[in-house]
Amino acid sequence: MKHQHLMRNINTIARCASLFRDEHLKDTGLSGWQAPYIPEIIKTPGITQEELAQKLHVNRSNVTRQLTLLEDNGFVIRKRCETDRRSVEVYPTDKAREAHTRVKAVYKEWRELLFEGMSEKERNMLEIMLDGLAKRAEELR
Q: Is residue 91 exposed (0-12), middle (13-18) or buried (19+ Cβ within 10 Å)?
């Protein structure tokens, strides 16, 4: 019976994390679902929408929808790729760079709260096991 709850538990953690980000980032203008885009765009200015979809494991329509909101709120600028006119590149604005520090802090706070009561050894083991599951999931995709 325990084995049947793996995906439900993973989804619960992901959704609760998004709600946590919603609450803790609301004064920045970012939603919990938009927050994961900021570190990727900051790390790789000019990343394409397709690359974002692959890195974040979401479909392209979700990327387009979230980037439209991020652009409307001044966090990103989208430009047609000069070498491949079919691709759209995404660049961070100063507003995104300012929000990035806050996004990282909210991620850190969530992690600390989530791992509260676990030993360092338990945290490390969980991280190793989840990394393995994530890699396997990507292989199966």
A: middle
Q: What is the pLDDT of residues 88-131, one digit of tens each?
A: 999 999 999 999 999 999 999 999 999 999 999 999 999 999 99
The closest alpha carbon to 17, from 105, 110, 100, 99, belongs to 110
Secondary structure (3-state) at 47 = strand
Domains, the chain, in order of start with CATH, read: 2-140 (1.10.10.10)
Q: Which is it for the CA torsion 20, 26, 28, 31, positive or negative?
A: positive
> Which of 71, 89, 73 lies closest to 81 in space, CA to CA?
89
Confirm if 81 and 87 have CB atoms less than 8 A apart: yes
